[in-house]
Predict the 3D structure of the following.
Amino acid sequence: MERFKPRTAVPRFPGLGHPADETSCPQRWLAAAVVTLSIAGIAVSVVGPRVLGHATDLLFNGVIARQLPAGITKDQAVAAARARGNDTFADLLSGMNVVPGRGVDFGAVGRTLALALAIYLVAAALFWVQARLLNLTIQRTMRTLRSDVEDKVHRLPLSFFDTRQRGELLSRVTNDVDNVQTSISMTISQLLSAALTVVAVVAMMASISALLAG
């Protein structure tokens, strides 16, 4: 006598739908959407510090430019610094975007900070949607798993329950499935976020300077 009966038809449970429907396209599309939103959110959030750095440059350039005499060009200011023997300041000044005599452009600083705020808001929205979709994907996957476990239990012969300790099957059906759900929900989000963040940060550092990423 066979221990397990052959599976004929998968029963349908109210509100669950057919397991084959749950494990086909919807799950893959949701998983793809989660990955896409994670990439977009991390990419946008990595751009934020660079925009804030540009705002800092605007402030620093304005402070330095205010200390230079008005009416001269930047090249003349660099030449004057070298003539005084201040080569370090001359090298610094040559790499800056300054207009001698002009102070901080607070309008440009304000626009840059507004752009940074918008970037962080967009990143937060993307992460929020990604978290919701990830939770939906995990819940649907675990719902399918529980349905499959229930189908399996229904097909087990009575002799199977007679040879098992009381509570063993209940532990497998409830505790083990809950542990799988907890592990998946924590591991996937953390690993995905960590891996994508490392890649995005290295790419941003390489775009700023190859020495930073080296």
Q: What stands out?
A: Confidence is low (pLDDT under 50) at residues 1-25. The chain has one domain: 21-213. The two ends are 67 Å apart (CA to CA). Helices lie at 19-22, 25-66, 74-83, 87-94, 106-155, 158-162, 168-208, 210-213.
